[in-house]
């Protein structure tokens, strides 16, 4: 799990996600499944606590170690879009 503080944290992971173009499946708001490079899917959880701190969790090895992986970046791009829709709805 990592705490999302700035978009710059995601730059490298976003670059990688653009190259790899993983499939992102929507489970529910804040919960996504992203295809891994070796097949299978990783679960990415995006949440925000009541102090406004955004935490992202991915079940892959890098995510386990607190690194920003491309699965998280891919899921976040969908999540951010959905969150924006919710606010304007
Ligand atoms: Zn991951």
What does this structure look like?
With 89 residues, the protein is of the alpha+beta class. It has one domain (2-88). 37% of the residues lie in helices and 29% in strands. It contains three helices and five strands, in the order βαββββαα. It has helices spanning 11-20, 61-64, 70-88, and strands at 2-4, 24-28, 31-35, 41-48, 54-58. Strands 1-5-4-3-2 form a five-stranded antiparallel β-sheet. The longest helix is centred in the last third of the chain and has 19 residues, at 70-88. The termini are far apart. The site of zinc ion has 8 residues, from helix 2 and helix 3.
What general form does the structure show?
globular
| Poorly predicted sequence stretches spanning 5 or more consecutive residues | none
State the distance separating the first and last CA atoms: 29 Å
Question: How is the largest sheet built, in terms of strand order?
Answer: 1-5-4-3-2
Work out the helicity level.
25-40%
> Which distinct ligands sit in these coordinates?
zinc ion
- Average pLDDT reading: 95
Largest sheet composition? 5 strands, antiparallel
- The percent range for strand residues is 25-35%
H-E order: EHEEEEHH
Structural domains: how many: 1
Radius of gyration: 12 Å
Query: How many separate helices?
Result: 3
Number of strands: 5
| Helix/sheet category | alpha+beta
């Amino acid at each position: 799990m990592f705490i999302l503080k700035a978009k710059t944290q995601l730059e490298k992971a976003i670059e990688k996600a653009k190259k790899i173009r993983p499939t992102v499946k929507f489970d529910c708001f804040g919960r996504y499944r992203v295809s891994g490079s070796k097949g299978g899917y990783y679960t990415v959880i995006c949440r925000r606590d009541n102090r406004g701190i955004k935490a992202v969790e991915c079940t892959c090895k890098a995510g386990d170690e607190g690194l920003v992986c491309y699965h998280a970046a891919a899921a976040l791009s969908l999540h951010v879009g959905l969150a924006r829709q919710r606010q304007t709805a």
